TrEMBL record:
Residues 13-176 form the N-acetyltransferase domain. It comes from Micromonospora parastrephiae. InterPro entries: Acyl_CoA_acyltransferase, Bact_Acetyltransf, GNAT_dom. This is GNAT family N-acetyltransferase. PROSITE patterns: GNAT.
Amino acid sequence: MTTDTGSPALRQAQIRRVRPEDAARMRALRLEMLADAPLAFLETIADAAARSHAEYAARVAYTSRGADTAQFVADPGGRFVGHAGGTVAPREAGLTVIYAVYVTPTWRGTGLLGELIEEVAAWSRACGRPELLLEVVVGNDRAYRAYQRLGFEDTGVRVPHPTIPALTELQMRRPA
């Protein structure tokens, strides 16, 4: 449970795995994520907005159960304010790849990022995968430093951004 005592009102958000009934709130958060940080995610806001509610609902239902992929949200009881996903790495046993990490601007600096990552880590360990990997766009120093504070280390591996050829991503790892 995240609390932010630095704001005028005490705020709390429950960190939990998505549920099938979360589709509309996940769509709203996804559109916010893409508007706020368009280079960090693998689709455009136009593509995400064009996707039907049924497509969102199917994705949320799929990631709400099982050991292959999961999505976790920060839920203060209204609009979601954070997200982190995890998925199995097909070519490396014991590894969970973290994806689509986001904290809405007004909740940044509250510890919410760490709580989301820890929820993915706990799920990863429960699935028998003791290591985490994530990728950060080179030059996104704010995210890089935040992940370092959470124990991630730069592996030195650089990979092309999957959708924007001019960008490069760096890989970071840590125990789950």
